Amino acid sequence: MKFVVEGHCDERGSAEYNIALGQERAMSLQKALVTGGVPASSIRVISYGKEKPFCTESNEQCWQQNRRDHLRLDR
Question: pTM of this prediction?
């Protein structure tokens, strides 16, 4: 089984900053999965930064929802 860990951020900050932040966020989850026994070779990491928001309003509650990792099966 292979997995994709997607890193996401809120809309604040530059695109470059959010891509880097999303990458760090996703790599943290990857590290936790590997520590838990998932083979590193079965995990792919990608950062979407602020490009795929879960919530589109501009308020703290929405920003919190957008600062996330998303784990999905890789096809």
Answer: 0.88
